[in-house]
């Protein structure tokens, strides 16, 4: 069978340009146009890179038409319901699910690496008392590069592994300290007797001295269903192919910058309301709607082409079917409502909007299904997390994906500095 190629014809001069077609293991093929500018003197034009494959990757696969998401070939449904977040971390970093011994070793290592250098803790004191946790978290991640400068030069697989485990372990502590600083509350240090996910909730909720109380007006005890819910959210956020923040991480990696600086850049990109901050917008909108009685009025506004109002948490840039992560969170949300006895007005508004959107021809025709942001914000609210912590939770889950993508880029023989071109239209 001959080599597959695509031929481009320039109708201005009749010139033909032939380029090889690269086949992936799944999904669309790609036309290798790396020599296009050299051959033709022209650029391809693709704002937002919606039709551009920027790299080869073995980490995550998405089929937006089918509503499919896989990490290292394993369906997200299997991972989110049958494996822990730490198992998923091992999968993304090592390419396979861990044995029981490997999982135990990873768990113990992350527990002991969760502590921050004391001089880094002092950095939090330089921030305003009301600083948004994301700004403090981003600064803390950047500062880690000063404490672990040796990670700028990684040679062995063990070097890469140590760098990855260190940032994954410390990110929940950075996020929890950033939150408590925003409240003016005493920092709660990690408890090595607690698991990765439980420890994060503990650092958010505990009183000085490490106490948790049953009193609903104070920091409440951590229930297993809450740990399970947050662990699932971490798993669903762990990686999502070449999204905006991952593209930023890879671009910064291409300059040779410190890996923790690249991760901090990803945090900054994730903060945007069009990306990781979308679930904050969902809760903000639900509160603006105010009551179930107002839902129909806002649905009508969303359907009015002359009204700028749009429902948050519906539709997705990639998924043209139901977001598979949203299906999982929908089931989890129903379980939380039942087990935590949650029946708030916010929940009732969300359920009414969901009910209409899944049955209304307007939304069905446009494939505006609820996405992960619609459900994650509601679940995080049910767990007692304020809106300011929604995106830091996303950061904690996504850190392993960013690190895996950073490592893959660094080890790729095709790695080169990112340098898109432009169509100049100025004077």
UniProtKB/TrEMBL annotation:
Keywords: Acyltransferase, Transferase, Tricarboxylic acid cycle. It catalyses: oxaloacetate + acetyl-CoA + H2O = citrate + CoA + H(+). One of its GO terms (molecular function) is citrate synthase activity. One of its GO terms (cellular component) is cytoplasm. This is Citrate synthase. InterPro entries: Citrate_synth-like_lrg_a-sub, Citrate_synth-like_sm_a-sub, Citrate_synthase, Citrate_synthase_AS, Citrate_synthase_bac-typ, Citrate_synthase_sf, Citrate_synthase_typ-I. The active site is at 316, 373. Belongs to the citrate synthase family. NCBIfam families: cit_synth_I, PRK05614.1. It comes from Nitratifractor salsuginis (strain DSM 16511 / JCM 12458 / E9I37-1). Pathway: Carbohydrate metabolism; tricarboxylic acid cycle; isocitrate from oxaloacetate: step 1/2. One of its GO terms (biological process) is tricarboxylic acid cycle.
